[in-house]
């Protein structure tokens, strides 16, 4: 899925929609996919009919289409993030418990989630920062992180304070252990796993510049 080269492929960092387009392109044809709340929902707008991707949403739907606009908006047809969506031919609806059975039973090929932190070995922290005034919001993230065959993360590489979200070890409460296989950021795509972190490609910066930003050893693809 996707190229495996460690090269600069863009003259500038990617925007949210450009990143969503890249993730969509990397999803294998015929996959069953869950898109998490926030930035990952944009991926649905860039999936092609030829890919034959079936989107699952946590609140009980298979066959979700792109975000609804204009006359397409139906207040009763939303995704887990309460965003109005469309339905594709053959879409089905089911109980919340059945939706979680799909997630927990290993029936999803890929889930795409946001994150506060991802560790070098693919640990995921995306539900709570531990801040006293933060509102914990785990939802179905733990079920998705554990149940999906592959976990892709979409996030900015740096926090607002300029600190890398890709870390040696997560300092926030974990959502899943060793579950993330790929991290898509505005500055680079990283492949994660037991053997460490590999940089697949960079956007608007070089491999060396990425290494200066990320506080762990990186490998070229």
Gist?
With 221 residues, the protein is α/β, with parallel strands linked by helices.
Q: Notable features of this structure?
A:
three-stranded mixed β-sheet, eleven-stranded mixed β-sheet, 4 helices, single chain, alpha/beta, 221 residues, 29% strand, 14 strands, globular
Unreliable stretches covering 5 or more consecutive residues:
none
Give the helix level as a range of percent: 10-25%
Distance between termini?
14 Å
Tertiary shape: globular
Q: Which sequence of SSEs, written as H and E, runs from N to C?
A: EHEEEEHEEEHEEEEEHE
The pLDDT mean sits at 93
**In total, how many beta strands?**
14
The radius of gyration over CA amounts to 17 Å
Main sheet record: 11 strands, mixed
Summed up, the helix count is 4
* Beta-strand content estimate: 25-35%
Q: How does the helix and strand content classify structurally? A: alpha/beta
